[in-house]
Design brief:
Strand content: under 5%
Largest sheet: none
Helix content: over 70%
Shape: rod-shaped
Number of helices: 1
Order of helices and strands: H
Length: 62
């Protein structure tokens, strides 16, 4: 048996869907921010390692 939704029920569904869509987009943005922060942190760590190696090479040459 098929029951069609009333106009009010459809509005509620669209409203709820919109809320979930907004929440999902917010989570995606936060995830992307976190990934960017994590990548930035890794790059900074790698740069520090390179600087340390450069100092060691310079120290061994002098």
């Amino acid at each position: 048996m098929v029951r069609f939704l009333s106009h009010h029920e459809l509005e509620n569904l669209y409203y709820i869907y919109g809320k979930y869509e907004d929440a999902y987009q917010t989570l995606l943005e936060r995830k992307e921010d976190h990934v960017r922060e994590e990548t930035q942190r890794q790059l900074e760590e790698q740069m520090e390692m390179v600087k340390k190696q450069q100092r060691q090479i310079l120290a061994s040459l002098t």
